[in-house]
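Write out the 3D structure for:
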Amino acid sequence: MPRLHLLARGAVVALLLSLPNSAAAWQATGANAIGGLRAYWHVFIAYAVVLVLVLGWVISIARRLKDVEQRLAD
């Protein structure tokens, strides 16, 4: 389980570190202009929701697997 926590922390840190870079790239490329990425904000939100759900599912599986391993060890 500690490895899972480290992996989750690493993913959050990587995401937070990439946000300023993506914001700067967004402004530098003129994505706010007509035909830019602003029309696709709902797609980005949908991907974020799916990513959070998949990570929650993986954590759930890891917890259940740990319980099964403990029962088998007894």
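Helices lie at 2-28, 41-73.
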